[in-house]
Amino acid sequence: MPTWICATCGNHYPDSADPPASCVICSDERQWVPASGQRWTTPAELDGDGRHCDIWAEEPGLFGLGVTPVVGIGQRGLIVTTDEGNLLWDPPGYLDGDAVERVRELGGLRAVTASHPHFYGAMAEWARAFGAEVLVPVADAGWVTRPDPAIRTWAGRLDLLPGVTLVQCGGHFPGSAVVHWAAGAGGAGALLTGDTIMVTPGEDRLSFIWSAPNRLPLPEPLIRGILDAVRPFRFDRIYGGWEPTIWSGARQTLETSAERYIQFLRGEAPD
Ligand SMILES: [Zn+2]
Ligand SMILES: [Zn+2]
Considering Cα of 155, then 162, then 67, then 5, what sign does the dihedral take? Predict the structure, then answer.
């Protein structure tokens, strides 16, 4: 019996003879079901299409993880390495043996987690390969599509590894989170944010969204909740859910971007 993978979002479902009737992630207003209808794929089908994982260095101690051709919405994973074990963040919906071997060379995984349900993808498979635990915010536990005994819930803030902290921010989803990595950006600190805080294509601005495909904005109180959650942390760099990155000055960029966004929400801009 195959593992069913939603072709649109890349989330995995339990092994069964037939695919589920629908994908709960894509049926939600924050994703979409294609006009042509729900489509399912399987690991074997993805293998057959010639997919492969790539792992590359982002900066000392941090590695990127991607899949070519993309699966789902083209999620880009990040692996944070520490002396006491590694964290896999926002894994794409597909993994192969070469990627597992490469991660083993990096020291394996202690934990796997994601910024929000659109990136839960292959969390369980990655965790199983290394006996790692899967961390899911209790607020979003209902969105887990592939239950697994390795799942542990958390809330608020969680010191996961030395200098690696999970921070629940809310916003896009109630459990939307970021990772604060103290050693990132050469010791100035970095946030890994997924869709919780989005990096814009020009890499000079940050933004927020409740539903990206349906262009529904994030209300002001939820933006203020994100700011309150990350302000206690030291950081200079932000890695979003895809390639664009705020390489430096991210703390100030976050404040000015949020202020601009809120002006629009209030009808106070453009002037
Ligand atoms: Zn889906
Ligand atoms: Zn999302």
Answer: negative
Model confidence band, residue 266 (pLDDT cutoffs 50, 70, 90):
very high
Q: Is the peptide bond before 60 cis (omega within 30 degrees of 0)?
A: no
The ligand minimizing its distance to the Cα of 171 is 2
For ligand 2, the distance from its centroid to the CA atom of residue 165, given in whole angstroms, is 21
pTM to 2 decimals?
0.96
Q: Are the C-beta atoms of residues 19 and 6 closer than 8 Å to each other?
A: no
CA dist., res. 92 & res. 67, Å (int): 7
Residues having C-beta closer than 5 Å to ion ligand 2: 118, 195
Q: How far apart are CA 123 and CA 36, in angstroms?
A: 28
With tokens 């262009």, the residue in question is 215
Q: Average the pLDDT over 193-216 and give the result.
A: 97
Distance in angstroms between the alpha carbons of the first and the last residue of the chain: 59
